[in-house]
């Protein structure tokens, strides 16, 4: 699969890059994509939720009324869950939501996600560029030139580029990452994936293993 290389003005440079069939042209495995996205979202959960149960509530332990003769239900402690301010029954407790997947499955999921984007013609290859200083306006101009101003876009750089990253940071619909940070969730979540030329070699070599 050949894709034309564009410049930051959205025009073809006259060069083309050939995307590896082993990475961008496989038969997508939807279940692998599902498992990898599920793991990514699960691993982002902090799991610090907690509510106080009966034994953890601060309060008197004396019996609040006599056992019989009141005409109401018996009650032993003000910390009972049936009273306002009492403990919570079966409340949430801290939990580790971390999941594990083997490397082969994660690699398959990423290749599947990239192949899905390739079939949808949602992959753009851009020549390497840089800004003289971090300016959101400059990055917006690149988005306009590529027709991605109102779409979710993911820019994949070969190496860390502070000026490009800071220029995009205020834009909710766009995200800039390096090739080493690429994952299945980010690929699927974006409408278009924009690869800078310098990122393709590293991605293809890592996913072709």
Automatic annotation (TrEMBL):
SUPFAM superfamilies: Ribosomal protein L4 (SSF52166)
GO molecular function: rRNA binding; structural constituent of ribosome
NCBIfam families: rplD_bact
Subunit description: Part of the 50S ribosomal subunit.
Cellular-component GO terms for this entry: ribonucleoprotein complex; ribosome
Naturally occurring in which organism (per UniProt): Abyssalbus ytuae
Family under the similarity heading: Belongs to the universal ribosomal protein uL4 family.
Domain of life: Bacteria
Region ranges (Disordered): 45-75
Gene3D superfamilies hit by this protein: 3.40.1370.10
Pfam families: Ribosomal_L4
Keyword RNA-binding: yes
Name this polypeptide is given: Large ribosomal subunit protein uL4
InterPro entries (UniProt xref): Ribosomal_uL4, Ribosomal_uL4-like, Ribosomal_uL4_dom_sf
Functional note: One of the primary rRNA binding proteins, this protein initially binds near the 5'-end of the 23S rRNA. It is important during the early stages of 50S assembly. It makes multiple contacts with different domains of the 23S rRNA in the assembled 50S subunit and ribosome. Forms part of the polypeptide exit tunnel.
Keywords: Ribonucleoprotein, Ribosomal protein, RNA-binding, rRNA-binding
GO BP annotations listed: translation
Taxonomic classification: Bacteria, Pseudomonadati, Bacteroidota, Flavobacteriia, Flavobacteriales
